[in-house]
Amino acid sequence: MSSKYLPASNPVKSFWLTAEVDFKDLRSTEELPAEADIVIVGSGYAGSTMAYYLMQEQFSGSMVMLEARDVCTGATARNGGHLKPSLYYSHKSWKHRYGEKGAAEIVNFEHAHLKAVKEIIEQEKIDCDFVLTRSCDVHLTKTAEQDCIDNYYDMMRNPYITCKHDTQILFGEAAKNISHVVDSNVCVTFTAGQLWPYKLMTSLLRKCLEKGLNLQTNTPVLGTEKRAGKWLVKTSRGTILAKKVVFATNAYTASVEPKFENKIVPIKGMCSHITPENRPAHLNNTYGIRYDGADQDYLINRPDGSVIVGGAKKHIFPFKNLFYNVVDDSTLVPGSERYFDGYMKRFHTWDTTKATTDYVWSGILGYTDDSFPYVGEMPHEEGKFVIAGFHGHGMPRVLLSSKALAKAVLGKDKNLAIPSAFKLSEQRLKQTNNRILQSLGTPEAKL
Ligand SMILES: Cc1cc2nc3c(=O)[nH]c(=O)nc-3n(C[C@H](O)[C@H](O)[C@H](O)COP(=O)(O)OP(=O)(O)OC[C@H]3O[C@@H](n4cnc5c(N)ncnc54)[C@H](O)[C@@H]3O)c2cc1C
């Protein structure tokens, strides 16, 4: 474990954090409990849903959640709010690595999140601006267009993908008119969602608190040690002896578990909130806006007429020292603010609209070499579980991973119902490749 991977203490405020949460710095008890049945480290999407599903499984023992900062202030409160399954764009590479069945497992699992997220929001009656919609991927370079076409038809040929009927490719005038993006010659549309993730997670956490969860905010975990068949969880405020511990620490996992150094790499990303002066026609879709390689932006059209735009990767990826292995979300990447100003002019319904970029923030994503998270029990370390490394794409991956892992934590179902590519295995842990910079197209060491 290394304190250099702990979350920064003074993160930039994101638009999502304007929602008031009255337990944001709660410590349920003044002192940490000396012992607990389960300790969850992290209160983001993974930690909150883990607590929720453990309780859904009728777990009635003691549960403590330890959070380094105020509640849920990591990536979950700093993201694009875009629940967008990856259905086709990576298909060829996933098929190459995992075969047709393996690729289909991932695509079908991500698509299943649309129903699962909608269901949990409706069942629990959570107000989080959720909208089920269609996303539109536009491709603004020749290479991106060709990648799109190749991957789309490759995905359509995969007999194991059950959700392919939900995707449509459009060309020429149809692509421009449907997307509202002037330069878009090819677009792909499919079902997606958008929401206020911080509201969803804190609402779930509120329900867990009502059922007895002990939440300890502003309590960084510094490491764990095996002690008499249990896990001694060491924090800045003392220790807790836990029967089981779950690391829901995403980009920061190396701060609690050294085996993840160089395996889950903290990557700094940028996002913004843009408000129009006179509300233009509502955009029909959310968006993925692709350029060459890993360069892409994403956009959601909020119900109040404002938009969230994230990406600005042109300003980030060339500069390794500014974003790679960086946990500091207290500053912005220089140049990214300018990038978001005027961004909306590319949509022909916004081209004459004056708009203000009123929030720009940074956040830390947990990238992995193979682009998949690590979910499961640590090999040879009974009672220690990990759900982390969502590679900047957690919204369509975390919920059902958490649901499956909760069952495994309780010993109810050790065969995790998640894609094989997500499973935490000895083989994945031993593997020492790290091609993250290469995949982002970053020259090794600029700046
Ligand atoms: C700018 C940005 C935009 C994004 N946009 C999207 C998007 O539109 N769609 C999408 O699918 N995904 C997006 N993502 C990714 C998505 O937000 C994440 O995959 C998801 O939120 C991960 O949830 P998590 O709970 O695993 O991590 P987090 O929300 O980061 O939660 C981890 C928590 O653990 C705590 N913690 C860490 N270490 C310790 C420790 N040692 N002790 C105590 N507490 C600790 C942290 O403080 C944090 O609260 C984006 C991410 C960023 C940063």
From TrEMBL:
Domain of life: Eukaryota
Gene3D superfamilies: D-Amino Acid Oxidase, subunit A, domain 2 (3.30.9.10), FAD/NAD(P)-binding domain (3.50.50.60)
Pfam families, alphabetized: DAO
Domain FAD dependent oxidoreductase: 37-407
Single GO cellular component term: cytoplasm
PANTHER family: FAD DEPENDENT OXIDOREDUCTASE DOMAIN-CONTAINING PROTEIN-RELATED, SARCOSINE DEHYDROGENASE-RELATED
Full protein name: FAD dependent oxidoreductase domain-containing protein
